[in-house]
Amino acid sequence: MMAVLLQAQGQNQSGNPLGLILPFVLVLGIMWLLLIRPQRKRDRQRREMLERVRKNDKVVTVGGIHGAVRWVKGSEVMLLVDESNNTKLRMSLSAITRILSEEKEEGELSD
Fold first, then answer.
1. Where does residue 69 rank: exposed (0-12), middle (13-18), buried (19+ CB within 10 A)?
2. Half-sphere exposure (CA, 13 Å, Cβ side) for 85?
3. pTM
4. Considering the domain 54-106 in this protein, what is its CATH number?
5. What is d(CA 53, CA 41) in angstroms, rounded to the nearest whole number?
């Protein structure tokens, strides 16, 4: 009697391997949809925005500095911060977070 019960328990534990793998696959799929895919989209949009930076664009940096782009060379950019004193800052292109001149064109920002 005991041998029959042990044998029945052993058969129930082995089960279908698909039943064991399916929950992991579902969790990975949900993580991809909720975490990885949106982050890739934001990264792509940021990369495209940085590629559009041109001379005379009004931009805002990570530190909140507002300025006008004077030149872009590779991964560096020169910003004119104060026209009256001709104050310029040389920064990394990746420090730019927004292009304000594009927002004005789209009507999102008004003076």
1. buried
2. 5
3. 0.66
4. 2.30.30
5. 19
Q: CA–CA distance from 77 to each of 50, 51, 88, 105 (Å)?
A: 11, 12, 10, 22
Per-residue pLDDT of the chain (111 residues; tens, 9 = 90+): 555 445 555 555 566 777 889 889 999 999 999 999 999 999 999 999 999 999 999 999 999 999 999 999 999 999 999 999 999 999 999 999 999 977 765 555 444
Sketch the domain layout of the chain as residue ranges: 2-49, 54-106
For the chain, report the end-to-end CA distance as a whole number of angstroms.
Answer: 87
Q: Give Cα separations from 1 to 6, 10, 14, 63 (angstroms).
A: 9, 15, 21, 76
> Would strands 66-73 and 87-92 be described as parallel, antiparallel, or unpaired?
unpaired
Tokens of 78: 């020169």
